[in-house]
Amino acid sequence: MVVENRLEEDTTVHWHGIRLPNAMDGVPGLTQPPIKPGERFVYEFMPPDAGTFWYHPHANSLQQLGRGLAGALIVEEAEPVQVDRDVLWVLADWRLDSDGNIAPGFGNPMEAAMSGRVGNSVTLNGSVPQDQVVRAGERVRLRLINVSLARIMALRFGGHSPVVVAIDGQPCDPHEPDGGRLLLAPAMRLDLIVDMQGEPGRRYAVIDDYYDGLAYQLTSFAYRGEKPLRVNPLDAPLRLPRNPLPEPDLQNAERHEMVLQGGMPSMRNMMGGGKMQGMSGMQGGMAGHGRAIWSINGTSMTGDGHAEMPPLITLKQGRSHYVTMRNETAWWHPMHLHGFSFRVLNRNGAPVLHNQWADTVLLAPKDTVDIAFVADNPGDWMLHCHVTDHQTAGLMTVIRVA
Ligand code: C2O
Ligand code: CU
Ligand code: CU
Predict the structure, then answer these.
(1) Given this model, what pLDDT does residue 283 score?
(2) Which ligand is closest in space to the CA of residue 69?
(3) pLDDT score at 302
(4) Which of 132, 131, 105 has its CA nearest to residue 116?
(5) Which CATH number, 3.30.70.260, 3.40.50.10140, 2.60.40.420, 2.40.50.140, labels domain 250-401?
(6) CB atoms within 10 A of CB 70
């Protein structure tokens, strides 16, 4: 891919979720020099895994991603599952002012200490969502990507039973989501198989009810009047072919712990008088480039990533590593690791089902999550929260594999 920078500022492109050589990872200052205005950079790699991925700049991320620089990257399977249609929904959140322009005020420190810049308008593939026209009886593979800066989504498909077949591009055991709710935080992807079992001529709402009291209808499945394509759901396997991921050896894995701290102590303090209290003491260990509000193991890398901070840990190349992440904050964090897909093993002590791999794992307030992976790819790799305000305000670090 040849990337030509026609912006008036530096940029890079990061290929989110693709396991690629470190020099192609797109982190300015860390894996490459920034692409200056008018310059080009050639990204060259062989994606080892089929699946649903995406790309976005890793420079001035709040503005560049927040103003729409994001795209889907789909690597097709050699032998795809049998479906009638393969459909992509890139979901993006925008904060618009009353004229419909993108509202200024990126990087507001108060927001950065809370849930980040959540907007007021969600688009589907770049437009205000229209009805999704479907035919009764068809089987659709639906690829969801949340490219929002901060908005977490929880989708419900009224009258339908979507089956999750891949998470962050990596196949899992096909399963229906807990409570029928598809949780999709920034940067996360889900591949679904949906059998359109509704009635011809009817409309079924797709609701996002993640935020209490702020449920809205994202779109709807609008059935054409014609007779069903087939009476019973297609009799074909749902399981995707597996990708060549190295399986971590849990018995002999090296153990590590990562503790997430910072932000406002709780919603209650935000309402009460004690504003910003929980943030004092969080300034230690910050590495320039803006204010630190969050930390990982007591250190904070801010901005978009840069080379000045030593790696938090060095992982022995070729070995299996078992990482426990503890969220001691009062906020949700989709934690993303560059360059690897990791197994998601346990959440709060209970095993995570359905053989899940991910590159971005969502931690609820006070959650503890265990992940594991083989450090087979050398280099300096970012680990950060994908709520962009959290990332740029310190919830970011570098992990070295050597
Ligand atoms: Cu989409 Cu640094 O990541
Ligand atoms: Cu990434
Ligand atoms: Cu976060």
Answers:
(1) 39
(2) 1
(3) 87
(4) 105
(5) 2.60.40.420
(6) 22
Domain boundaries, the chain: 2-75, 85-223, 250-401
Q: Is the dihedral of CA 62, 64, 69, 75 positive or negative?
A: negative
Ligand 3 centre distance from Cα of residue 173 (Å): 28
- What does the alpha-carbon distance between residue 173 and residue 164 come to, in Å, rounded to a whole number? 8
Q: Is it true that 2-75 and 250-401 share their CATH fold?
A: yes
Distance from the alpha carbon of residue 188 to the mean position of ligand 1, in angstroms: 11
Centre of ligand 2 to C-alpha 359, Å, is 7
Assess whether the C-beta atom of 338 lies below 6 angstroms from ligand 1: yes
Which tens digits make up the pLDDT trace of 249-283?
999 999 999 999 999 987 654 444 333 333 433 43
User: What is the pTM for the complete model shown?
Assistant: 0.94
Mean per-residue pLDDT over the chain, rounded: 93
Q: Which residue has the tokens 């074909």?
A: 236
Q: Is the CB of 390 under 6 A from ligand 1?
A: no
pLDDT of residue 271: 45
H-helix or E-strand spanning residue 257: strand 254-262
- 85-223 classified as CATH 2.60.40.420: yes
Query: Ligand 1 atom closest to Cα of 384?
Result: 2
Tell me the CATH class for 2-75: mainly beta
Per-residue pLDDT at 309: 76
Is any ligand 1 atom within 6 A of the Cβ of residue 14? yes
